[in-house]
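= Paired protein data =
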Amino acid sequence: MKVDDQERSQLSQAIDQLSEGLDTIIELYNNSVEDKPLLQLTDENEELLSRATIKYGGEEVNGKVNKVIAELLEWLPLDDVVTEEAEANEETEETEEIEDK
């Protein structure tokens, strides 16, 4: 394919933009994690939440539901449980301590 200098420059810019876009997509993919639902709601509860959100707004409903969940979970002894997120944070802190030395 024959191109002049202007077309060659435009093609070069397009390739650079595609490369940057691909790098961004690869970074997003590498940083992605599996979305695991924490709670399996019944169809009835999903319907009730949907209706409550329409009537009172998402922020209001989320606040109230989270408050109830927090109160329910206070009944369970959870101090000895380490989450995946906490483990990852501990590993990061250990790595930073080693790098600082």
